[in-house]
Please model this.
Amino acid sequence: MDYHGDLSIFLKERLKQFKKMADINAVFLIFGFGWAFVAPIFNIRINEVTGSLFLSGIIIGMWGLVRLFTDIPVGMLNDKFSSKRLIQISFLGYIVITLLYVYVGSFAEIFLLRFFHSIIGSFLWISSWTYTRRISVGAHASERVSLWYSIRSLPNIIGPLIGGLVITLINWEFSFYLLSLFMLFCFLYTSFKLDKLKVKHNVKRDIKTELRHFFKNRGLALRISSLTIIYVIIAGIYGNYLPLFMQDRGFNIEQISIVIGLAASIPWFIFSVPVGIIGDKYGKRWPIFFGLIMSGITLSLIFSVNSLFDILLATFIIQTGLVFVTVALNSKVTDLFPKGEEGSITGIYEVMKDIGVIIGPVLGGYLAQTLGFTNAFMIAGFISILSSFILIKRIVTAKT
Model:
């Protein structure tokens, strides 16, 4: 067998898929670096303003609550207007919104800020997902979606380390100024480099009709929706409260930055594309199953975590599991999209995520405040393990 020739063909195909996604990947590479700078301090800043883990959970959860009402209409807008234009509008909003996190000083102010942040975020993520799915078609659809995940995760490996250094050497406010500057770079790159894709579908539909269309295959839609809500809840409980958990254990901002930058981010860069390729070739069932098991068992054993190395290892395994679930589920949804309705269906699917985003931080904040961080994480682990056995049996057909 000509292994050298096969490898050459394989690598050429990977490069071809990478080029197809180059511009949208570049935009979110810049976006990712901006947000990575504030990752070590963002939720700590929210908790500093609210003074309560439960209230912090409400503020964090607002991201999903507000988007619950905006994602479907924004998705429908993407089927009528250029996704590129909507992405541009989003970045203009982000330039202002990110700066305001420096100046809020009360619960009412941060509540209002988070409300507008969530609306702008709805426009950005629905529009960018729609754009990505419109260029992720054919036999390599899962691979292209996973490439987007992989590139988006790259800044998170070193960004939090730089952010932690900036916060330590200068101040935490400067990291938010950097974030706003990077949002300006995103706007400029989008304006000059992103293609203006033609809208191929402009049939007038209301939200009720779109929901009926999404749930046409009710059993599959319900199982995908249920798994999506569950994994987002798990990610919300662990991801949002990891910095506060570490702060409570006596770790400093540099150590928190290391965990977020390395253990929480590297799995997305390493495993996103392989999971996408596996999904294209063998189906999405097993990545989802093993991802839930992997994250669930590790979260259930979180009581044994003490040292920095322990937290690094546990977070790496948990995030690896979430990569498997996230990439496989998003790829499955992409496979089901009718051409020309990517925006509307994206909006509906993102609503399922929003439900998890609402529940995760609020539930996590309540559990952490009443039972402690360790018990909150262990409960999330049990939910993950149970859902893997209850829902995986019929999430997809034996082939896909």
